[in-house]
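To: structure subgroup
Subject: Chain for Friday's discussion

All,

I'm putting the inputs and outputs inline so they're searchable in the archive.
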Amino acid sequence: MKQTHAMVVPALLGLAFVPVTSLAGQWGLGVGVAVQQQPQQGIDTEAFVLPFPSYEGERLSLSLGSVSYSLTDSDRFRFALEGQVRFDGYDPDDSAMLTGMQERDATFDAGFSVATSGDWGIATLQVVGDVLSRHKGYEISASYEYPVKLGRWIVAPSIGANWRSDDLVDYYYGVRSFEATAERPAYTGESVVNASVGVTLMREIADRWQLVGGAEYVLLGDDIEDSPIIDKDRETVAFGAIVYLF
């Protein structure tokens, strides 16, 4: 199956979605448009429509491809169990430059996160690993976000970094010996650190209706950028959605 959402979905999950109206047991459903630029050779910038579901309970949170359950009830500190779909895979049909490569599958990562917040902002540390034994690796992410209320808008700029293990990088960005060609040498990926900056925008436009938007820029580490199937040093995504809260 052609995975045109390979980079956009993780980026959307990385951009915080905090409802303007926060009520326990709050469901949301919307539709959004996303534009992405992937780093693989031969894949052009794409735009497409995505569903935008969400649920925010006292402990349980659900969003597109992710689930989180808090084990604490403090407003200032949160320790949670995390699960999220990793859509980093691709199909060789995505690009002529990937012909001869084996398909790289999506998977489900699970782990935990620790977050603390105050007037200074929100800091989060997350550790997740592959539970389906696809890439067999894990990832450690750290982020800082500073939400600001500007009139009816909430603007939340953020910065972050993530460390990906050897196995994770090699599975999604490596080239196995039998996949190698004269133009695409074999390549073994190693652990890498990626850096990111982003912003999320939210506004209540009517009773139970919200506008949500954002953008993220990810600077890829050297061991991803050096892969022969990669021709960009970055991933970028922008999106906008309208959401109805039940």
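Points worth raising on Friday:
Residues 166-173 form the longest helix (8 residues).
Confidence is low (pLDDT under 50) at residues 1-11, 13-22.

D.
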